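On clarity, I found the account of how folds are encoded harder to follow than it need be. Since the whole study asks how a given chain folds, the encoding of that fold should be made plain. The format is easy to grasp once an entry is in front of the reader. For illustration, here is how one protein appears when written out as sequence plus structure tokens.
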Amino acid sequence: MYEMSSYHELITQLGIDYTHPGGKAATQKWVKQIPENLENVLEVGCGTGETLRNLRHQTAAFLYGIDSSAEMVSKAKAKTSHLHHIEVMQQNIEDLLFTHQFFDLIISESVLAFTPIDNCLPKLTNLLKPNGQIILLEMAKSQTLPHIAEEKMKIFYQFPQLLSKEDWLKQLLDNGYETVYIEKVEKETKTPVTLPQHLSIDMLQTLNQHYQFNTEYAHDLHTYLFIAKKRGDTHDHTRN
């Protein structure tokens, strides 16, 4: 009997660009809207580095990418090595090594959902300058998602929590953000995906379970783009 690989192991092995819901089209929804005159930009969970490469054509800011996977960091470094002012590092959100209020913009494409958000969102907010922006492209459940299905997904995807759109909005407001723009985006990616010729049985089982969840509960799981601005006063609104 074979044991399924974790979803995170599958994503790392596949090494696919734009693995987040909506793929490249979802990224392009926000990337051309980023503010001008940025100095420092952080992408958390940068994966293969494709979004960083996309950003390089939109801003002259110094771009930082972090990922918890050494393999993904290696892929991202290889993909961006010929581009100026990009640094990719292996770090976890919980242990970020950046200065308080260092970034003008922070980006998370289907990353924060996999972290304990009560801990990680305040840490990111602390790194953001007043009036800085955070861009989130994240999964959200609807009220129709059966509880048993939610619990199964939390185990399979290793979600600490599965938030609704309203939960995400509350998290942003509670952490000192305002002017929150929200847009529902198409989950299905139109970006062609090429799978490796040889996948192990456990990887195939994991991939199959992922597709089953997204097919069976297609009307109960949604993807939203959140663009929020941190309050511009000098008080620190992040929660302890």
About this structure: The chain has eight helices and seven strands. The CA atoms of residues 95 and 123 lie 9 Å apart. The chain has a mean pLDDT of 87.
